[in-house]
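Cont'd.
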Amino acid sequence: SHIVLMLADDMACNPRNPKPATVFSHKNMELNVYGDDVEVDYRSYEVTVENFLRVLTGRIPPSTPRSKRLLSDDRSNILIYMTGHGGNGFLKFQDSEEITNVELADAFEQMWQKRRYNELLFIIDTCQGASMYERFYSPNIMALASSQVGEDSLSHQPDLGIGVHLMDRYTFYVLEFLEEIHPASQTNMNDLFQVCPKSLCVSTPGHRTDLFQRDPQNVLITDFFGSVRKVEITTETISLNRDLAGFESKLPRDEAATEPLKYAEQLPVAQIIHQKPKQKDWHPPGGFILGLWALIIMVFFKTYGIKHMKHIF
Amino acid sequence: QVRLAVPVAVVFAPGSVPGDLPRPLPFRDVEEMEISVNVRTSVTSQYEMVYRGTTAQEEAALDAATAREADAALHPLQDSSLGSLTVYVVPETSSLLPQGISVYVGKHRSALVRAGGGLAALRMRLRQLTQVMSFTASSIASVLSDRVPDGQLGPDTRRHLKSSLGYEITFSLLNPDPKSHAVHWDIEDAVNRYVQPVLDKLSLVANFSVDSQILYYAVLGVTPRFDKESSSFLLSAHSLPHVINPVEARLGSSAASLYPVLNFLLYVPERSHSPLYIQDKDGAPVNTNAFHSPRWGGIMVYNVEAPASPQASLPLHVDVDMVRVMEVFLAQLRLLFGLSREELPPEFLLESPGNEGLADWELDRLLWAHTMENIATVSTTLTSLAQLLDKIGNIVIKDDVASEVYQAVASAQNAVAELAVGHLHLAFQASKKAVTSSERAFFDPSLLHLLYFPDDQKFAIYIPLFLPMAVPILLSLAKIVRETRQRKKEPTKMD
């Protein structure tokens, strides 16, 4: 489908989850957000900054399947939602990496250059989320964040049975708001900006619309959510000649019967297993390291005198 | 700047030569028109007109009874290379064209025009004809749409399929009620008979692959309304946009290819919702009972007649009339590509292309638009690649990326040169090669820009590493400097 989902995916089947394969938004267990139609495209170790930027810019190795690609064109509206731990100008990926706001802005500019989007809605729910959209400079981007720079985004409620907080406040209230939107709804973006005021969210949600060409008043929520298409009634038909006397049936191109390949032949396992490791070329050390070592050695021998060298060698 | 040359031959039948020709036949003339896209970009269209009289064979062909027969007889006598046009001017009193029709456009690359009104009227007709048969200013501007300042193009201009090397067509039969209807469709036969000829005609434009599937228990996401007057169910026009998304999740697509997919769905409504009609904005039922979505595909609703006797055994056997279905699907395919026959100047008559699906000049229209789009895409892609390399200095360009870039530039220049001479076929092939190379260069996985390190991070990492090491080095350096200075002073002291 048209959703690319990148998830560390260690929660639903975590041994501590008393109801495995479910993730609920509230401890009343009403809404299972990890339901039947959730397809995780990138999970656990595949969720890296590099893969995320590859998906956005399209610089993907040719062997990647269709579901892991962003196949958008200049008429596509894209929604990007990011959540996790973050700080002033960055978002954490997997405890070992970060993506900065400058990289994100550059990736969006690459997308704009190649016309990979018509309009882009960027929602981020992290601490100091507003810092992530400060650096955007490409047109047609609208951004929402759960907190301003210097503020923390707080989570909603813990489930004492599991021992963790289930959802963030901003996400929880946005989800509640969106559950009431149906495909024919005329609600516009200004209503989305009002979701989760400071009284509920404790942090101040922010938004940025200066790069967006249309007035947010006129932008429907369903422009980004719900995949509502433009349709046209078909009024023309062509007339086909029903009885084609003497039509030749097109023979399939590959007439020669090829033997079906057995599994082992399709995958050159023997070659892969016995492959020698690629020899990395040895490069002489670069200028900075050489200079540093030269400095150290020179100082050492100047200080202690050159006559000590013969004791060493 | 790009120049689009269209070779046009205007052939005057005896008795149709206007009196006010500037020179005696045969002569050549060139008409140029500037299509301005934005302040810096403009495309010049150049119509190279050759005016001449008919040969004996052409005269014999024009003696036919109807325009269609004349067109068929004239076809082997023409120069029918891609992009060229031949116009035959027949006398005003000729009976070839029906009453009230001044221009007849055949299914190949020729047209018959009724003379009358002198040279000025003829020129106007020729201009209208070339606009219909090759390209218009707006069709060229719309494929260069990312360069046009916003607001000048209408909102509907970017809805035709983008130029691509291939397309995948999927025919799906949706049967939500298998207990009542056992639907059979001979899709393979229909594809071979009706779809394949159209795709063969379009094979110059792109590669097509066709597959089909049957989905059971797939429902439309919208509940139709029951209308008492017609005792049928109606789907209103404003609920149609919500139909596609719930169904789309169930449609598969080939995991391997990256070509755009065109989905054509045939929906057989449930017994409890039959018959189902689609209403247009005015409330009238649509006679094709079908709708399409730009760049996605089309959906047709196929109603099954209620059985004669209410005790008929379920499930009813239904054999789908594939001709009716394919007439709609192929029309939708044409509309998705942007070939519409709706807006015509008055007094024009277009010949139906029959089972081939599209006329030769419609293929030319597609090729003009796609060639321009390809050339524009190549230049935008390579420019943005160059800008990326300017901004990030330490990206390494591999040799094969470099060779793709060179090839893209060479092919694009070749395409522009061929367009200027009027060789549409060669220009299109060159533009396809240019686009393939430029996309391969731009989307090469090795060009991912390196991660950005903000300055404070660089200090934060390197200072704890180098500061403790640097302290004794700097102190020793200071000691050395002091010693050398002292030694310089000492010789004067010792002496």
